[in-house]
Amino acid sequence: MIARTQRTKRVPARLNDCEVTQDNAVNDEGDLIHFALLADSEPLNYRDALKSNVWKRAMEEELKSIEKNQTWKLVDLPDKKNKIDVKWVFKVKLNPDGTISKHKARDCEVVVALACKNKWSLYHLDVKSAFLNGPLDEEVYVSQPPGFEIKGKESMVYKLYKALYGLKQAPRAWNKRIDDFLIQIGFKKCAAEFGVYVHCPKDEDIVIICLYVDDLLITGSRIAEIAKVKDKLKSEFEMSDLGELSFFLGMEFMRRGDGIVMHQQKYIGELLEKFEMESCNPLSNPSETNTKIDECSDEEKVDPTVFRQIVGSLRYVCNSRPDICYAVSVISRFMHDLRKSHMIAAKRILRYLKGTLEIGLLFPIGTNSAGSTLIGYSDSDWCGDITDRRSTSGYVFKFNNAAISWCTKKQAVTALSSCEAEYIAGTFAACQAIWLNSVMIEIKCEPVKPLILRIDNKSAISLAKNPISHGRSKHIATRFHFIREQVTNGMIEVQYCPTEVQLADGFTKAVKLDRFEFLRRSLGLVVCNSSMN
Fold first, then answer.
1. Which of 250, 331, 254 is nearest to 288 (CA)?
2. I need a surface site. Which of 46, 175, 182, 451 has the fewest CB within 10 A?
3. How far apart are alpha carbons 466 and 423 in whole angstroms?
4. Is the pLDDT of residue 71 over 90?
5. Structural contact between residues 415 and 421, judged by C-beta atoms closer than 8 angstroms
6. Which band of pLDDT confidence, cut at 50, 70 and 90, is reported for residue 103?
7. Looking at 34-43, 235-244, 321-330, which range is the least confident one?
8. CA 265, CA 328: separation in Å to the nearest integer?
């Protein structure tokens, strides 16, 4: 159940036949994306819901939860005060296998890699009706829920003491509530990543919590200490203990002999079905190697709505599939003026995912030869964009032989040489390396110094190591010399690596199939149901 204001909102005429949802209404579980897929199972209004025993019980449970949390009190509406109307919103929550988990009315890679390295257990907790736990500072009144008005008191309203879903104050109130509690029981919020909390009950013990709205991922060095934290959380909030980690923020986690595989098989399957690609012919590479896409202004235009839905969905898949990062980055550049070739390129990525549905990212168990070393790879494709001749930067970082951070991004300036393009890309990667180092220090997993950054351009490495400004670098903007500063103070060591073993190569350009498959394996992408790859 959410609250809504009585203010009149004007909808553009072109959207009169559409159901409009604000951008911030799309959550990490992809509710908006899945809306059409669930149309047959979710009631459209509260009258339809009341005809179903299942949904009626869900509505009653929601109201019981509100009463239990002492969220509101029935009162007469004071003079000169306005009430906010409320409405029911219905959603079916699914398990990863697609079965119904519950009827409801209403950056974790580093931590996972650390847990696998140390052979720690990972657990998932969910706070029930999280937003109902946040106290309100403002005076707010809402109408009685439709279908549950109290007989003889229909004119009365509820005064809110805690937030309801839909109130603009609700997210802030809930975050403050749980943040205060975690700090109260001994946790410290990470300065570099506000969603991560660390607790060290003893010198050698540690408990880490990754918080995302109402989902908590918990891990640590001792199961007994984790159990104590879980008990404290359950005593303060109504929570669902979902056991060992298997599904978090739309990501699925599968345990096998050599580690944990993070994948999105179910989500990708839904995308293929939604965009009518479930019967398409699979491809073995997400990008064409001999063709670069430009604006294609002479081609016919196609439906931008479907294209944007595909791109948005694929960007979410990039969270577990770095192998499509470059291809998705390229098609994202044409959102403003979509042509037929752009749609074909987007569907090509879906065809590739169809053929690699069972691939996921492996986090190896135990310490390997890389140990606690943070190793980064940085690369660029000089003048790779044939429209504006700007270069593309790409990086990937590995810890304990697991990819924990990756990115593809077109550079903001035009590089005058391949050396300059690689130098700018190196600074882009160095910024990420420093941030990762800060996060890892706070979770008591400080990487070995210096941090390693591997580049396959000797001129760029020389420029990063040489503090003297000369003809090749005096025109480069000051901000791009950040990498030189980090090399000088010993924080980062820039190493040369041959192009053949440059793992960031596939983040800056389309490569041939044998090269692409080598890079995919090197990133730790494996077949989920295979113990060794």
1. 331
2. 175
3. 12
4. no
5. yes
6. very low
7. 34-43
8. 18
Q: Which residues of 131-160 are buried (b: 16+ CB within 10 A; e: fewer)?
A: bbbbebeeebbbbbbbeeeeeeeeebbbbb
CB 206 within 8 A of CB 200: yes
Confidence category of residue 489, pLDDT binned at 50, 70, 90: very high
Q: How distant, in Å, are the alpha carbons of 108, 346, 492 from that of 318?
A: 14, 14, 27
Average pLDDT over residues 209-233: 94
402 bridge partner residues:
399
Residues 196, 112: contact at Cβ < 8 Å?
no
- Provide the mean pLDDT of the chain: 84
Strand 188-189 and strand 451-455: pairing? unpaired
The DSSP symbol for 388 reads T
Average of per-residue pLDDT across 209-217: 92
Query: Nearest-5° angle of CA 244, CA 245, CA 249?
Result: 150
Output the six-digit token pair for 232. Answer: 């404290």
Question: Pick the residue with more confidence: 27 or 358?
Answer: 358
Closest to 405 measured CA to CA, from 322, 468, 346, 342:
322
Structure tokens at 355: 């053929």
pLDDT for res 10: 58
Identify any residues that bridge with 405 across adjacent strands, giving them in sequence order. 397
**Residue 85, helix vs strand vs coil:** strand
| pLDDT surpassing 50 at residue 28 | no
Rg (C-alpha) for the chain, rounded Å, is 26
DSSP annotation of 27? -
Region of 222 on the Ramachandran plot (φ > 0 left; ψ -120 to 50 alpha; else beta): beta
Say how many C-beta atoms besides its own lie within 10 A of residue 463's C-beta.
Answer: 24
Per-residue exposure over 225-249, b if at least 16 CB sit within 10 Å of its own CB, e if not: bbeebbeebeebbebeebeebbbbb
Backbone angles phi, psi at 142, to 5 degrees: -130, 155
Residue 414 token pair: 């035009």
Whether 377 and 504 have beta carbons less than 8 Å apart is answered as: yes
Question: CA 508, CA 242: separation in Å to the nearest integer?
Answer: 39
The secondary structure element, H or E, covering residue 509 is none
How far apart, in whole angstroms, are the C-alpha atoms of residue 526 and residue 503? 16
Determine the angle formed by the axes of helices 418-442 and 109-118, rounding to 10 degrees: 60
More confident residue, 449 or 101: 449
Degrees to nearest 5, angle at CA 211 with 205 and 217? 60
CB atoms within 10 A of CB 108: 24
Tokens, residue 216: 């908590």
Per-residue pLDDT of 456-472, as tens digits, reads 999 999 989 886 655 66
**pLDDT greater at residue 24 or residue 69:** 69
Q: Which of 394, 312, 408 is nearest to 21 (CA)?
A: 312
Q: Which two tokens stand for residue 273?
A: 């079905």
Which tokens in the block code for residue 213? 């709205």
- Select from 477, 368, 470 the least CA-distant residue to 424: 477
Asked if residues 370 and 401 have their Cβ atoms less than 8 Å apart, the reply is: yes
- Beta pairing class for 259-263 and 492-496: unpaired
Q: Does residue 302 or residue 353 have the better pLDDT?
A: 353
